[in-house]
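Query structure, 76 tokens:
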């Protein structure tokens, strides 16, 4: 199967236990340069502004979601 890439995906988080995003009207929303995605039996964790000094959840991560379930849908 040939992979053409996707132009859009939808991520649907369920049973969210914690999230943190910061917004201010002074700045435009940023491009995501780094990300962190962790999966365990108990949770899924994604950060679009992670502490890059390690590969575990960090108190220094920003813009994150911690949830029990994540579904990915390929948009047409």
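Result returned for the query:
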């Amino acid at each position: 199967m040939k992979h053409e890439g996707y132009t859009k995906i939808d991520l649907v988080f369920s049973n969210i236990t914690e999230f943190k995003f910061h917004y201010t009207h002074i700045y435009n929303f940023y491009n995501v340069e780094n990300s962190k995605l962790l999966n365990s039996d108990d949770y899924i964790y994604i950060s679009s502004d992670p502490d890059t000094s390690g590969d575990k959840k960090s108190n220094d991560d920003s813009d994150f979601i911690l949830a029990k379930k994540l579904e990915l849908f390929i948009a047409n």
